[in-house]
Amino acid sequence: MAAQADVRRAAARAVTTTPWLTSRHSFSFGDHYDPENTHHGLLLVNNDDIVAAGTGFDMHPHRDMEIVTWVLRGRLAHQDSIGNRGVIYPGLAQRMSAGSGILHSEKNDSATEPVHFVQMWIVPDEAGIAPGYQQQEIGAEVLDGTLVTVASGIPGRDAAVSLHNRGAALHAARLRCGDIVSLPHAPYLHLFIARGAVGCEGAGDLAGGDAVRFTDAGGRRVSAHEPSELLVWEMHAKLGGASP
Question: Which residues bind Fe cation (predicted)?
Answer without folding.
Answer: 60, 62, 104, 106
